[in-house]
Amino acid sequence: MNELKYNRILLKLSGEALAGSSGFGIDVSEAEAIASRIKEVFDMGVEVAVVIGAGNIWRGKQGLDRGMDRATADHMGMLGTVMNAMALMDALERAGVYTRVQSAIEMRAVAEPYIRRRAIRHLEKGRVVIFSAGTGNPYFSTDTAAALRAMEIDANVLIKATKVDGVYDSDPKTNPDAKKFDRLSYIEVLNRRLQVMDSTAISLCMENNLPIQVLNLWDPQALLRALTGEKTGTLVTA
Fold first, then answer.
1. Smallest Cα–Cα separation from 208: which of 161, 125, 144, 142?
2. pLDDT tens, position by position, 123-152
3. What is the pTM of this model?
4. Can you list the domains of the chain with their CATH numbers?
């Protein structure tokens, strides 16, 4: 196997990744499938941290459209990410991977509080760390939480896992002529308003020169190719 390009990664997953065909809730088989992908790279010696969303449980926009308070809607989403993190932790540990869940909102009965140095130590000891509850603050997305945590743990790359094989100039599901980008700059992503991650997350990565690799996690080889520097998905850099 080729030499690893990245030794410590932060994997950003959407909540929908756990939902299966129903698009809602937690499908245990989907959690197991994601765990098997993570275990593959973990067994190669890669230190893996994960941030997962909650779109399979709660979408704050639905509440906002009915007049719900934004902070309340966002806190509900944060709690949803804890449920997803626990489901993924269970799948990983059943696969033989030691895992820790850290939460930005304290709930010591089910997760450790987020402590940066403890998270890094877990990674160094060969544990996967799942960061839940976003940043702990409303008005910030899990994309921004992923960028922030990646910076805090000194990750080499932020990997945005999707169900398409990269970034396109339009939706490839509805436009057969959509153009795929192999490489983009942060500024191009912002100027073109490409739906890679939200603008706060992109700006944070740009300011700290953290590369973003967008790939299809359900392609069995995509993550492995990315870690060895082979061409796959879309790479966003300076």
1. 144
2. 999 999 999 999 999 999 999 999 999 999
3. 0.94
4. 8-237 (3.40.1160.10)
